[in-house]
Amino acid sequence: MKSKYFFIPEDNSFFKEHLKDICSIRISRIINEFVLGFRFLKKQHNTVTFFGSARLTPNKEYYKEATELAFALSKKGFTIVTGGGGGVMEAANKGAFEAGGKSIGLNVILPKEQRLNKYVTDSEVFHYFFIRKVMLSFASQAYVFFPGGFGTLDEFFEIVTLIQTNKIKRIPIVLIHRDYWEPLLKWIEKDLQKEYKTICKKDTKIYQLVDTPEQALRVIEKLSKKYKKLYV
């Protein structure tokens, strides 16, 4: 068999067997990462996961507020979980580290953008992005979302969908900074709920919008206690 780019012989049994071996190795690696990831998460308790832009620097307001909130949550006995990278992730890990709390990173191997920040005290590293994404979606008893890009929005909609479809239990989801989140939430309410009726009104109650770390702390404490009682 001829190709524009390479030549495959008519007797391609060798290539078929080689492909089987590659698939077997990949499947084994995927299973192993899932097992190691869930074992790692099982050791963590009373966790809060932070999401937000990886591009924010320490001089930015959101970075400082993520550090402040993580510090306060750590002092309350919460374990802080992030993707282990920079920006908001680094800020949250920094807050937990400075409070003397547990600072967890669920990192992924990427060519350039991702590195494990220096404030992580315990971590698990993943090769596959989708496995790390699953771990972050099932990692915590509360989720905090600071302003971010596509990745942050992807995680937000995934977790909201998991709760909406009863795939995970109801847990606090806190969105911080009205100026960033309100346009999106207004679109969800106006178009999805009222105009197209693709979601119900109760779906818009899955998440809470706040403006400050202090408000976020109060919401997380209040809702964590409320939902724990529901599932006892």
Task: Describe the protein in words.
The protein has 232 residues and is of the alpha/beta class. The protein has a single domain (13-230), classed as 3-Layer(aba) Sandwich (Rossmann fold). Helix content is 50%, strand content 13%. The protein contains seven helices and seven strands; from the N terminus they run H-E-H-E-H-E-E-H-E-H-E-H-E-H. A seven-stranded parallel sheet has the order 4-3-2-1-5-6-7, with helices on both faces. Helix 3 links the parallel strand 2 and strand 3. Helix 2 (61-75) packs parallel to helix 3 (88-98) and helix 2 crosses helix 7 (213-230). The longest helix is centred in the N-terminal third of the chain and has 30 residues, at 13-42. The radius of gyration is 21 Å and the shape is globular. The mean pLDDT is 91.
Produce the secondary structure layout.
Elements: H1 13-42, E1 47-51, H2 61-75, E2 79-82, H3 88-98, E3 103-108, E4 122-126, H4 129-137, E5 142-145, H5 150-164, E6 173-176, H6 178-195, E7 208-210, H7 213-230
Percent of residues in β-strands: 5-15%
CATH architecture: 3-Layer(aba) Sandwich
The low-confidence parts are none
Alpha-beta content class = alpha/beta
CATH third-tier fold name: Rossmann fold
What is the highest CATH level, the class? Alpha Beta
Sketch the major β-sheet. 7 strands, parallel
Helix content percent band? 40-55%
**Radius of gyration computed on alpha carbons:** 21 Å
Q: How many angstroms separate the termini?
A: 63 Å
Q: What is the domain total for the residues?
A: 1
Number of alpha- plus pi-helical segments: 7
The sequence of SSEs as H and E is HEHEHEEHEHEHEH
Shape: globular
The multimeric state of the shown protein is: single chain
